[in-house]
Amino acid sequence: MLTVVGNLKGGTGKSTVAFNLAVWLAYDKTGVKAFDLDPQCTLVDVCEVREEDGYEPIVEVSTDLGELERLASDKKSKCPIIVDMSASNMPAMVRAISLADRVLIPVQPSQADIWSTQRFLKIVADNLDKKNKTEVLGFINRADTHIGVRETDEAEQALQMLQGIKAIDIRLYQRTAYRRSFSEGLGVFELDPMGKASKEMKRLATLLD
Description:
The chain is α/β, with parallel strands linked by helices. It has nine helices and seven strands. It has a single domain, classed as Rossmann fold. Helix 2 links the parallel strand 2 and strand 3. The mean pLDDT is 95.
């Protein structure tokens, strides 16, 4: 299963989501292979921190698009693949989408992010391999924790109305635990297994298993 985590807009938490999913999958016996196709190489950086600090399992990350293409064509391999990408490397983004079994789109709760997601969905639709029957899933990321803020509900409703995407019933909230765990090279469920952020991420990871 090749899962691309992406969106056009920066700051949606793509690398944090990709990293946590990769760490989650790394615990399975089949392991995981991660690819960072974003020139900022944030996923590479956090996985290097993880390795330097001696945390296991190690998550191997590649920036080689050719290697991704080779792994995607290997039908015998059961190792899941996670790809972090951004619009700043558009050719790699387009190619990764064409190889994907699943496109996972984190969406921040704002109108600007909904508009950006609409544009991204057009790119996705234009570049999907129709033979793959690729899943396109979206969810609200960095949701506000204050019950009185309406933007999260409004953004989720707007996301559900977009064409070409299935909105999944999961929210990841704006929590310090995500930033702290990321800076330490840990999955949020490793840093605080019983915390709210851990439970949110486990729900997402389990749904995608």
